[in-house]
Amino acid sequence: MKNLLKAQDLRAYYRLVDGTEIKAVDGVTLELRPNEVLGIAGESGCGKSTLAAVMSLTHNPPLRVVDGHVAANGSNLLTMPPEQVRREIKGRHISVVPQGAMNALNPTQRVRNFAIDMLQEHFPEMTKAQAIDLARARIEELSLPVRVLDSYPHELSGGMKQRTIIVLSTLLDPKVLIADEPTSALDVTSQKIVIKLLLALLGEGIITSIAFITHELPLLRQVADRIAIMYAGKLVEVGSMDEIIFSPEHPYTRALMGSMLVPEKHIREQRIEAIPGVPPDLKDLPIGCRFHPRCQKRLPVCSQEEPPAKIVGDRTTWCWLMQ
Amino acid sequence: MVLANAVKRDEKVRPLLQVENLTKVFGGGRNEVVAVDDISFAIAPGEIVSLLGESGSGKTTTARMILRLSRPTKGRILYEGKDINEMKGIDYWRRAQTIFQDPFSSFNSFYSVHSFLGKAFRLADNDFSEDERRALMEKAMEDVGLNASELLFKRPHELSGGQRQRLMIARALLIGPELLVADEPTSMIDASSRVGILNMLMDLSRKHGMTIMFITHDIGLAYYTSDRLLIMNEGRIVEEGSAEEVVERPTNAYTKRLLADIPTLRRKWDT
Lengths: 323, 271
Ligand SMILES: Nc1ncnc2c1ncn2[C@@H]1O[C@H](COP(=O)(O)OP(=O)(O)O)[C@@H](O)[C@H]1O
Ligand SMILES: Nc1ncnc2c1ncn2[C@@H]1O[C@H](COP(=O)(O)OP(=O)(O)O)[C@@H](O)[C@H]1O
Ligand code: SF4
Ligand SMILES: [Mg+2]
Ligand SMILES: [Mg+2]
Fold this sequence. Notes:
The complex is a heterodimer of chains A (323) and B (271). Chain A has 323 residues and is an alpha/beta fold. In chain A, 29% of the residues lie in helices and 24% in strands.
């Protein structure tokens, strides 16, 4: 189990007080390789943020891992003592920029306090001045304005806040950065700047790999080496960026790609069709393939049994058509 | 061409909507914000036009003035040649309707879906029986992909953002306006369903000649749906033209940069 980070048969459910279970991650196996940007894409509610929380060990009740493990460096992080996870894993091996992090900064604190808290968590003996020096050096290295440290969150633009959080979250040179929708809600120009920063962190060797979570496939075309497509708590297709964007095989990936509105000639030359229906309720999932109620290609077996994984080269597909 | 039979801008066709030197200033002194800065444009009947710009460029402020929800600081808005601020509110709103950007703020949480849609009938000319109303509401809900039997008596907080946005669209369909101003109408609706909603609005425009003004930051949406684009930056309209012209051959520096930064599928950024 010598991995950078790998989820193996992971199941993580929200257990609500009334006893219902929301199966947000339901049997996911996914590996992050060295020196790559892995894109994780799917529509809202399919379980991307839940997967990010478990893989970064930041999950809390009512979310519970009911099965499977998260492996790094040969250990199952889910059974590691919490104190060891805090000391050795969080921020050091894996850092996460949660969805909406830029709006979660404490509005009454200057941004530098975020860096001080982060560093003192790991080095209790470090002084505030030392922490600020470290943060300043990194901010300069990545060509951000040093004044951000003395600013309050509301004084910074969305793009600047997001870049600052990313830089401060990677101060301890974690191997893995999990970035959950880091560019959503930003203008296109800020999106591009945030992405350049992420690529610079990789280029400078500050981090080794990125799991980039988004619902926007055109963005992944720009940055991802591999892409995993999620639907209703499960992966449906994982492959290289080229395979997923230009020759998707799973009917859901194909339909999703076909419904993208990008400013390119072909979308005005024909009518683009939506996928009929809506994703299933994660409390009440259909039997068999979770996409079958909306699938134009379904076979009789699709509504009876879950499709197994089919691996061809670097691509894995979960669909009966591929069997 | 998606909109082959949409009404094209033509000297002989009188504009449905004419915006002249429209300006909106908020605050004063040091806090003065010129949100909309002397813009002018016209929209022909049956046309689909997008007002496209990044956040803060003044799109919503423009939409609110066109919907008579806010008064211009300067300039005027003519609907079939009449100043909208001199018309009776109800007469105007029968003809010009909106889908709001933020569906959370546009619902009163005490109303059920049924009473929310029911209010739309206040703008109707006809007297419908309760059964007729119910049938029309259910039809409008099904048209936007909402399950009426499940949702009709739900309250707004029990619906997802996407469901609330669909409900706004259902309400607009019930009223059947001549002009629909749709401010980020599908921002809460996922990619796979978004295009279905847009197709529906485009079909309405084609079948009934409904004029649509999309207010959006989404270039893909604007390009797919629209006959014409108006590009807005810092309160001004910096470029205007057919969707093809603007996207394929932009002339303004701002438009060029915007298009270069948009992630697309065919082209990779030079990072
Ligand atoms: N704290 C929570 N309690 C209950 N259900 C939740 C909670 N957070 C998320 N969920 C549900 O879990 C599912 C997956 O959510 P999420 O992982 O946030 O999806 P995504 O990030 O792909 O939009 C959704 O149905 C969502 O409603
Ligand atoms: N009620 C208001 N009071 C003061 N400033 C406002 C108000 N509404 C909008 N603004 C300002 O006007 C500018 C344009 O805003 P808006 O029309 O909402 O832009 P957009 O819809 O393109 O994002 C922004 O700078 C915004 O802060
Ligand atoms: S398994 Fe069947 S229903 Fe599911 S995507 Fe494949 S063909 Fe469609
Ligand atoms: Mg999420
Ligand atoms: Mg707006």
